[in-house]
């Protein structure tokens, strides 16, 4: 792990197109500003871990046949209707 010391309003660069700026420090927290291309996905680690777990769970679902998929689709499409 690389450890850097930065002060408020100082930045670090990741490659040529991602800049991380220290916005504020205080109260046991650091606020970061991240300037990155729109195609770069940025998540807090705990959210990223949840997404990975949900994707893993979804990939493990076994579908016996096409009728199972159609039954699931019918149930989910009725949820939002009044």
UniProtKB/TrEMBL annotation:
Keywords: Bacterial flagellum biogenesis, Cytoplasm, Repressor, RNA-binding, Translation regulation. InterPro entries: CsrA, CsrA_sf. It is found in: Cytoplasm. Gene3D superfamilies: Translational regulator CsrA. One of its GO terms (biological process) is regulation of bacterial-type flagellum assembly. The keyword Kinase does not apply. The keyword Chaperone does not apply. GO terms for cellular component: cytosol. It comes from the Bacteria. GO terms for molecular function: mRNA 5'-UTR binding. Belongs to the CsrA/RsmA family. A translational regulator that binds mRNA to regulate translation initiation and/or mRNA stability. Usually binds in the 5'-UTR at or near the Shine-Dalgarno sequence preventing ribosome-binding, thus repressing translation. Its main target seems to be the major flagellin gene, while its function is anatagonized by FliW. PANTHER family: CARBON STORAGE REGULATOR. Homodimer; the beta-strands of each monomer intercalate to form a hydrophobic core, while the alpha-helices form wings that extend away from the core. This is Translational regulator CsrA. The gene is csrA.
């Amino acid at each position: 792990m690389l450890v850097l010391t930065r002060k408020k309003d100082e930045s670090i660069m990741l490659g040529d197109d991602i800049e991380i700026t220290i916005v504020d420090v205080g109260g046991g927290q650091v606020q970061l500003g991240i300037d990155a291309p729109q195609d770069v996905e940025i998540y807090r680690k705990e959210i990223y871990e949840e997404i990975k777990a949900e994707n893993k769970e979804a990939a493990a679902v076994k579908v016996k046949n096409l009728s199972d998929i159609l039954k699931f689709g019918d149930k989910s499409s009725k949820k939002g209707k009044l």
